[in-house]
Design brief:
With 387 residues, the protein is mostly helical. The chain is 58% helix and 6% strand. It is elongated, with a radius of gyration of 23 Å.
Length: 387
């Protein structure tokens, strides 16, 4: 449905030239979203897919393993959209305090995103409502170090930003002037908790994501925070016990269409086209997450059975194997810390698993050896190749 412009243009002066900045109307859209029969069916499919995703975490032997891994996968994908060139292995090496192969700034950026996700979830679980304070705190973690750390982490911008082009005057899109950001974000915060909004939480998250990206309230990190906002809203709204719906891979695969539809909302008010795209992404992403969890469970069971054939040392090897299930790139120092075993016991266990083809030793040395659980890493790395 085309409603016309979903905001107004405000003329402002930036660096001596006049610029037309876009200030969005408050949510929800007027008139309300149109629910065709086809769109209702798509919403039902997306809701069912989220239900399956929510239930899979309760079926896993250790849901924490999946959450740990999936959060890191999302951090990598979301950061790649912004141009980083890290791999999942680079991030895991960095977390082991090894020297990563990718540029350090890239890995720090991804590591910051992990910290931002975990901090946002912790704040919600501690009882802080989804609000601008929470969003600012998440942003502060995201830009705590490395690239962007000089761009006022945790604070709404006080200068004009823009998307595309070399300056606001030739930009593809200019968000609201800085003096309009507080009122725009205050209205978005009210929308989060407005019980009169005539659409389910799943679609409220879709609307809020576009609004956040349109306001672009920070000098840097808006895309990453905007994508994370979807997961936080679904968690806060009780749709997902764990915030495991991360749409970055879907947005990465369909970048051109994603940006085209954001523009279409702004210029034509076509929220329905965006909602359809988003809901299809929810169906695909939730289904992929369930399949990933199932693959990991099958892999852990299969390799656990191999280890049980080892006889007397099997119990020791299983302890180290369980550490590898938590950290698929692991050195002997960290394995010793995680298991409480001695270095000789850890070494023997790793060598036994290497003999079974479960792990691969990467360093070729005799000390500080590093092992990779390759098949685990391969499952997690599907679709995470740098752009």
């Amino acid at each position: 449905m085309e409603r016309g412009l979903s905001g107004i243009y405000q003329t402002t002066t930036v660096a001596g030239e006049q610029v037309r900045a876009f200030v969005p109307f408050d949510l929800p859209p007027q008139p309300d979203l149109v629910f065709s029969e086809e769109r209702r069916r798509l919403l039902e499919r997306a809701t069912l897919a989220l239900g399956r995703l929510d239930s899979i975490t309760m079926l896993l032997p250790d849901a924490g393993l999946f959450i740990y891994s999936y959060v890191r996968r999302e951090a990598l994908l979301s950061s790649q959209i912004e141009g980083t060139q890290s791999s999942l292995s680079d991030l895991l090496l960095f977390e082991l305090e090894e020297v990563p192969g990718a540029p350090l700034d890239d890995v720090v950026e991804v590591s910051n995103y992990v910290a931002a996700i975990e901090h946002g979830v912790r704040l919600l679980q501690d009882g802080l409502p989804l609000c601008n304070r929470l969003i600012r705190e998440v942003h502060a973690r995201l830009l705590a170090r490395g690239r962007g750390s000089e761009k006022t982490p945790g604070e709404f911008r006080r200068s004009q930003n823009w998307i595309g082009g070399t300056r606001p005057g030739n930009a593809h899109f200019v968000p609201p002037p800085p003096d309009r950001v507080p009122e725009c974000m205050a209205a978005l915060e009210r929308f989060f908790h407005d019980p009169s909004v005539p659409c389910p939480v799943l679609l409220k998250a879709a609307l809020a994501h576009v609004q956040f990206e349109t306001i672009h309230p920070f000098l840097d990190g808006n895309g990453r925070v905007g994508r994370l906002l979807i997961a936080l809203m679904l968690h806060d709204g009780g749709i997902l016990v764990q915030p495991l719906l991360y749409l970055s891979l879907y947005f990465k695969k369909h970048r051109s269409e994603y940006y085209r539809l954001l523009d279409r909302v702004r210029t034509e008010g076509d929220w329905e086209a965006w909602a359809d795209f988003y809901l299809e992404g929810v169906v695909q992403t939730a289904g992929d997450a369930v399949r990933t969890a199932q693959k990991l469970v099958a892999l852990f069971m299969q390799d656990g059975e191999k280890i049980r054939t080892l006889g007397r040392i099997a119990s020791t090897v299983l302890r180290v194997f369980q550490a590898l299930c938590k950290r698929p790139l692991l050195n002997n120092i960290e394995a010793k810390r995680m298991t409480g075993l001695s270095f000789p016991s850890v070494n023997k266990a790793m060598e036994a698993m290497a003999g079974l083809g479960i792990v691969r030793e990467l360093t070729g040395g005799r000390r500080n050896r590093l092992f990779a659980y390759d098949r685990y890493l391969n499952i997690l790395s599907e679709g995470t190749e740098p752009l």
